[in-house]
Amino acid sequence: MTATVGVCVVGDGAIAQIHCRNVAANKNCQLLYIVGKTPSILKSIAEELKATALEDIEDALKDVRIRAVMIASPTVTHYEYIMQSLRAGKHVFCEKPLVTKPELVQECFEEARARGLHLLCGFMRRFDRNFSRLRASILNGDIGTLQLLHFSTKHSMAKLSDPTSFDMYHEVLSHELDLLCFFSGLQKPSEVFATSSQFPPPAGLGLPNSTPDVLVVVLKYEAGLTCVIELHNNVSYMYDQRVEASGEKGLLVAENERESTVASVSSDGTPSLSRSPEFYSQRYADAYRKESEHFLNVVINGVQPFITFDDCYNVAILAEAIKTACQTHSPVILK
Ligand SMILES: NC(=O)c1ccc[n+]([C@@H]2O[C@H](COP(=O)([O-])OP(=O)(O)OC[C@H]3O[C@@H](n4cnc5c(N)ncnc54)[C@H](O)[C@@H]3O)[C@@H](O)[C@H]2O)c1
After folding, report:
1. Which strands, in side-by-side order, build the sheet including 240-247?
2. How far, in Å, is the centroid of ligand 1 from the Cα of 299?
């Protein structure tokens, strides 16, 4: 990469701050603006990173130095920011879920295509070294035909800034659904089964009472592949993200990351393992950095985006189908 591009980051929450720091540390671009709605945080991060704080995106979009906008504000704001930025001639990166309605995913990508601009969605798990390796093994035929994919996720949810618009199927599950498309090569399932249970949500997080606490999904594919996703929200004792892929010739397992692989046994015989990261910001720190490098590489050098319209569209369709299966207590058949 040679040229330097001006970047505007939209949002001043947890994930926006990760993107701001990665952009500020990248010598191929310059973080010029941060757009946010929490003045105290916005001012502090903008001062730290020597960027201009804005409460409105308009001035950033008028600035010809801005070639790229990275949107990391709440999901309900994504559609407007994507369209505004594309119409102003800027390339766009947007956090997942891009938008929740499949038809709006289509509209956003059509706008980008019509203007010759790039639109990339932040499915950062694709940049995780373990998941990349697991996929490469599947593609290499190491386990023969892929027959069963199993995702196990346990995590605790952060405090929500806007609980009313929170949709767990799109907000949380979209990561597993994206990896499923990534590993299986975009095959669409023919049948979707899902069930969920609710426990009282932890106080203070602002989670809607209807948010599933435990969610189990089974997706069946015509080619024979079965995928099982187990998601346990509000688990405070660990951050667990494992994947197993089994095929006719073998098994691949992506285990949790650990600080080190050194295990110990104390004098009373108690075994212990090195700690795993406790939150997404630690677990995927390297993946977020690679993701923003990839976006800049797309903008500056025109490399093919690693995440496409089909990926975002399929994730939105699957999240909706799983929500329907849970709410109607019946399987959903996809054409
Ligand atoms: N890829 C990932 O791993 C990941 C992780 C967390 C969140 N996300 C996604 O990132 C987005 C933001 O999530 P978050 O957890 O950082 O949110 P958050 O609740 O931590 O922060 C929201 C912030 O957005 C700001 N904001 C509110 N309205 C705004 C507007 N109109 N314009 C600009 N800023 C506005 C608020 O000031 C607040 O600080 C969501 O779409 C979420 O799904 C992705």
Report:
1. 251-254, 240-247, 146-154, 226-232, 214-220, 191-197, 332-333
2. 23
Residue 61 to residue 8: CA distance in whole angstroms: 8
State if residue 128 touches ligand 1 by the CB under 6 angstroms criterion: no
Nearest alpha carbon to residue 114 among 84, 86, 81, 93: 86
Give the residue from 111, 106, 40, 59 showing the smallest Cα distance to 312. 106
DSSP class per residue in 183-203: HHTSPPPSEEEEEEE--PPPT
Atom of ligand 1 nearest to the CA of 10: 33
Q: What is this structure's pTM? A: 0.94
- Which H helix or E strand runs over 109? helix 102-114
Say yes or no: CB of residue 73 within 6 Å of ligand 1: yes
Phi first, then psi: what are they for 149, rounded to 5°? -115, 135
Cα gap 56→195, rounded to integer Å = 41
Cα 190 from chain centre: 24
CA 74 to ligand 1 centroid distance, Å? 4
Tokens 């849970």 locate to: 326
The Å distance, Cα 17 to ligand 1 centre, comes to 9
pLDDT in tens, 35-90: 999 999 999 999 999 999 999 999 999 999 999 999 999 999 999 999 999 999 99
Q: What tens digit of pLDDT does each residue of 248-289 get?
A: 999 999 999 888 888 889 899 998 887 777 788 999 999 999
Structural domains of the chain, ranges and CATH numbers in brackets? 5-122 (3.40.50.720), 126-284+315-333 (3.30.360.10)
**17: Cβ below 6 Å to ligand 1?**
no
Q: Ligand 1 pocket, 311 CB below 6 A?
A: no
**Tokens 């390297």, located at residue:** 286
- In this structure, the residue with its CA closest to atom 43 of ligand 1 is 171
Per DSSP bridges, beta strands 240-247 and 226-232 are: unpaired
Contacts of residue 292, defined as CB under 8 A and 6 or more positions apart, other chains included, come to 19, 22, 23, 26, 70, 93
